[in-house]
Structures are given as structure tokens and as C-alpha cells.
Amino acid sequence: MNEVLTSQAVYSEESAEILADATLTFEENLIVEDSGDCPRYGCTCINYEKCCGCIIQ
Amino acid sequence: MLQIRKAISFNEHDVFLIPSKDSTFLLYAPTLRKLLRITTDLALRISGIGLFQETDDRDVRAVASLLKQSLKNAIKPFPMHLRKSKFFHLALGLTKDCTLNCLYCHADAGKREDMPIEVLYSSIQYAFETAQKNSLKGINISFAVGGEPTTNWKLFTSCIERIKESETQYGIPVHLSITTNGYYGSNKRQFIAEYFHSILLSLDGPPEIQNLHRPSRAGNESYSIVRDSALFFITNVKSFAIRSTVSNHSVKKMPQIVEFFFKEFGNQYHLVFEPLVPLGRAIINTPLVSEPSQEDFVKYYIQAKELGKTHGLEIRTSAANHKRLVTSFCGAMSIPSFTVTTKGIVTTCERDSEGDYYWYGKFSPESKDFVLEEQRINYNKALLEMPQKCRDCFCKWHCAGDCPDVRSINYDRCYVNRSLIQYELESILNEAKNKVTKGGGKNERSPNESSCLQRGIS
Asked: Which phi and psi angles does A38 have, rounded to 5°?
């Protein structure tokens, strides 16, 4: 899951029009970057979300 | 009526303004890893003047200040096309035949055409020799091209035996994966479970859905046999998932499918929902089944996913992924994938079961080797270029222009991609709110608490 880092930031003092704030991690980019070591592949890969997609039907 | 710009720039990073609930906007800067909920009035002012710290507008300045702080956290979308795999990927199209007669089959399977044994053994040899020559860590061999791989059982078992012999001979480990219809008995199940590491089983839902979508060749029901395969694989295969193709007939029943599968199979597997794509037999069978409306797919997929969470069952789809930023949908075109059709044509995509569209080589009976064409490899790589229409879309680094093969038939699932990404972004902000609330802070306010002026947006 995305780890959500809430920002206890300056904006609460500076703007009443910023209603919520989150910092995203995109940690799956690390998995994709490291996917050279993954023995799975393509349309039969049940973890396919992490490096590619399958729409074979 | 005021027009709002969807995309603006901050220090060469995209910043998207997305209309949201309760007359608010999401301000989304993906490469800066920043997500805000802002008032409509502030969105309009940002759209009008841009994001400058020098502006007199205190609130715009506050946003610019937050984004400036995020510059140190900036990331680049991962260049999928440059991904280097330490494994050789071989995909085999053993047959165009099938034991089922699915109404929507993309490959129009059911023809008596098998891969000649010479092509099969040469494909396996090519994979092992290439892996050895390049000192790769292993080989992934997948079966998902054309018909049901197990239909010609003799060919299928000969193939696995040859692979296992080669594994011993070359000393290179193999990972076997298969997409299968599960329409076979216990002996075949045991063989598959013994040799395969990953299994994706096509099973669309309860009997009334499965038997309509996926009848046997003789027109009989298939549910009871495929159900037994699912039960066997769940307990005997470590990496197992069920894939349900969603039609106009089944789309509103997605939550019921989750409930039914949970009762039948528990939750120790992944459930994958994919909308039917108008390809192959799906084009001629439209009076019986057709693609679901994208609005329905989004609505009921979200309900199904939420229900899955309560049951501890992971629900997935191949539409845009909110957890990553990438430059292309998959690596098949750029690796390129070594997919061999029954006729010995080498193509990049497992959907291209005839090798008509993405071919880049073929088996030569004379040399008993594969002849590859560099020009075609480059042609396929060029298909990864993101379409112009994606330029101002907040989804662009999530779906990366979506599957090139889907684009080639002008099937556009942008509504699904955008809706599901926005759903996830809204969930992240809600989660952030909950975390802060639990911590006693206050990081989300109602738009009514602020001084925004609501204006019409066109």
C-alpha cells in the first residue's frame, strides 16, 4: 500500500483553502526498478500489476 | 462560465487540477509526490495565474511553497522500456485448439492447429542457449498464447518434459506459468500443480455467469469441473489467481461474484477482474455478451474491491495502477518478449496469437533456428510512445497510454483508468485525514470552513 505521510505543514497557518494534504511514496517504483530479478513474466503473472498488465481473455 | 486548465507546470513538473467531491479540487503533482485537496476558488486562481511564489495571492503562494518543499522528494517515472531482465522470457503458443467455447475468446480458439514439435523444441533450445550465452539467472516460460495450452495433452506433457530435461542439461532454473481454463480432471490438475509455479485460472463467476460466458465445446456447463480445479490449485499451488472476464451481463454482479467466490474458495488467492474487450469472438457474439459500460465497471469494481477488503480477498485489475509512475504500460514491446506462435512466428505480445501485428522474426525450417528482424524490433518499440491525447491527463504516468494493443483497436478505457486512479487518490486523502484525526490534529477541513467562493466550472 501507499504509505501516506501527512504533512503537518505550514499551510494550516498560511491558507484556509488547502483542505487536505498527502505525500505519496510510489513504493512500487522500487519494485519495478528491481524487477530484473523477478522470474515471473507478462500475461500469466498473477502479480502483474507490479510490472505490466494483462488483458488476455 | 469559467474554463479551468487541467494541467499546469511547476518547475517543469506537471500539476493537475481534478474536479472532486463537495465542490473541491484535487491538486495532484505526481512527480513531486504531492496531493492536495483545495477549494474550487483556489483551483480557479491557480488555473488563471499559475503557480508562482512571487504572487500576491497568499493561498496560491502557500501551494507553491508546499510544492517547492516537495522538489527534494521528486521522482522520475520509471523508464519501463529500459528495464533489463535477468531472465529470458519465452511464451509458447502450443495450440489454437480449446476445450471450451467461450463467447468472447480473443483468439477465436477452437481450431485444430498445433505447434510442430520441431518448432517447439527449437524454441526451448533457443531460450536455454540465449540464457546461457548471456549468463542469465533463469528462464520464465509462460503458456498464454492462442488456445488452451493443455488441449493437446501429449504435446503439452512432451513440452514440459523437454523443458525439465533442458533445465538439468544446462543447469539453468526455469519458472513455469500458465493461464488455463481448468476444464480437466484430477490427473491433469496434479501434473500441472507439480510443475507450474504460477497459475492464472479463468473462472468468470457463479454457474449462471461461467456457463453462459464459458460453455464447453459441446455446449455443456463448465462450472463444476473448473470449480474443482480452483479448489485443487488453491491448496496445491503457491502462486494462484482467478481471473474473471466482466461482460455487460456480469458487470453489476461483481460484488456478488466476490461474495460467491469467498464462500466457495476462501481468500487465499487473488481475484482479477478485467472488462471484456471487443476482440475475436466477442465481436460476433455481441447479441449474447458484449463489453460492459465503463461507468458500470468502475462503479461495481469499487464495490467489489471494498467487499474484498472486508473478506481479506485481494481484488485487482490491469487498469491504471496508482502505486507507480512508469513510462510505458508493459515491457513486452521493448524487451522484446519472445512469444512463439503455433506457426513459429516470433511476436512481442501474447495477445497476438497469429503474429500478425507485432512479429519480429520467424522459425526457419532450413537453419532450424529463429531469424529476427531488427527493423521490426524497432517498429514495435516505437509503439510505446505515449499518445498526444495523454499530455494533459493526470493518469499519464499511471497507465502510460495504456496497452498498445488495446489502442490499436481503438478501444479506449480512459474513463476506467481515470476513475479508478481518482478513487485511489481520494482514498489516500481520506486515509491521511483519518491518521491526523486519530493523532488529534486537523489536516482536513470542510470547504465551508474556508472562505472560498463557489463558481461554475465548464
From this structure: -85, 125
Alpha helices in B237-293 (DSSP H): 254-265, 281-284
Q: Tell me if B322 and A2 make a contact (CB, 8 A cut-off).
A: yes
Neighbours of B318 (CB within 10 A): 25
Report H helices in B50-197: 58-70, 117-133, 153-170, 186-195
CB contacts < 8 Å between A and B, how many?
241
Please give the ipTM for the structure prediction: 0.78
Q: Cα–Cα distances in Å, from B130 out to B87, B88, B137, B218, B338?
A: 10, 8, 11, 42, 11
Query: Which amino acid makes up residue B62?
Result: A
What is the maximum span of chain B, computed from C-alpha positions, in angstroms?
A: 78
What's the whole-model pTM score? 0.87
In this predicted model, what pLDDT tens digit does every residue of B55-93 receive, in sequence order?
899 999 999 999 999 999 999 998 877 777 788 889 999
Q: How far apart are CA B212 and CA B84, in angstroms?
A: 42
Measured distance CA(B24)–CA(B27) in Å, rounded: 10
Interfacial A residues in 28-47 facing B (CB < 8 Å):
28-29, 31-33, 35-47
> Please, which pLDDT band fits residue A56 given cuts at 50, 70 and 90?
very low
